[in-house]
Amino acid sequence: MEVKNVIEVNQSSIYQRNHLVLSDVNFTLAEGEFVYLIGKTGSGKSSLLKVLYGDLPLKNGNGKVVGMDLKTLKTSKIPDLRRHLGIVFQDFQLLTDRSVEENLKFVLKATGWKDKNTIEARIDEVLDSVGMLSKKKMMPFRLSGGEQQRVSIARALLNHPELILADEPTGNLDPETSNEIMNLLLSVSKQNNCAVLMATHDYDIIRRYPARKVRCEEGRFLEVTEELID
Ligand SMILES: Nc1ncnc2c1ncn2[C@@H]1O[C@H](COP(=O)(O)OP(=O)(O)OP(=O)(O)O)[C@@H](O)[C@H]1O
């Protein structure tokens, strides 16, 4: 069977306005694959992820994410791209003025879901898959960091994404909770055949959960081949 790629980037440079952050980026991510994006603070991990979810333009080279061409992506098509992606942030980014359930409902309605029963069933399904069904009515500020991250992973799963982009998802969590979130990310990736590109500089996590690694370093983007990483 032919393997489908959910990310294909060729000969691209990543810019923040006119500042060149990364050049000569060549990268493919196959469906269902889990890959770490590593590199020091300021090396360009977030900038690359932003290009992949349409928050920064792809200025040169070619890029495709979940089959959509980043080079010709019109602003009006960005919601379409995001519908096929799940995005998980370090600071969870839940809406603070509404419950867990309402956070998820907001996303479903914004992405075109209409039927009340279908919406409720999908919310229960994703919350159950991250072990948060019993916290459905809670406000985010009453949840621990780990629980908030679980909800944000549930939110990422709502539209059956082929790809999750996770920017330092364990960055605000203690080591034990980080391990729980890693186990969850790995299991949802496997269960849903959903690829994950996870930016991190947490080397304990990388050692504990080995996977393919790519690195941003001094303006370049490299595949990491050595076993030992600093
Ligand atoms: N909005 C912006 N405007 C201009 N330059 C920016 C902007 N955001 C980031 N940069 C610059 O782009 C470079 C890459 O930053 P980026 O946030 O992608 O790195 P990172 O590897 O994700 O770091 P961190 O782990 O701190 O998030 C840095 O030199 C940064 O100063």
Topology (SSEs and partners):
Layout: E1 5-16, E2 19-30, E3 34-38, H1 45-52, E4 60-65, E5 68-69, H2 78-83, E6 85-89, H3 100-110, H4 116-129, H5 145-157, E7 163-167, H6 175-192, E8 195-199, H7 203-208, E9 212-217, E10 220-223
Parallel strand pairs: 3-8, 3-9, 6-7, 7-8
Antiparallel strand pairs: 1-2, 1-4, 4-5, 9-10
Helix pairs in contact: 4-5, 5-6
Bound molecules: adenosine-5'-triphosphate.
Adenosine-5'-triphosphate binds next to strand 2 and helix 1.
CATH architecture call: 3-Layer(aba) Sandwich
Percent helix: 25-40%
Structural domain tally: 1
- Tally the helices: what do you get? 7
**How do the helices and strands follow one another from N- to C-terminus?**
EEEHEEHEHHHEHEHEE
The main sheet orders its strands as: 6-7-8-3-9-10
**Over all CA atoms, what is the radius of gyration?**
17 Å
Helix-strand makeup class: alpha/beta
Number of beta strands: 10
Strand fraction band?
25-35%
**CATH topology-level fold name:** Rossmann fold
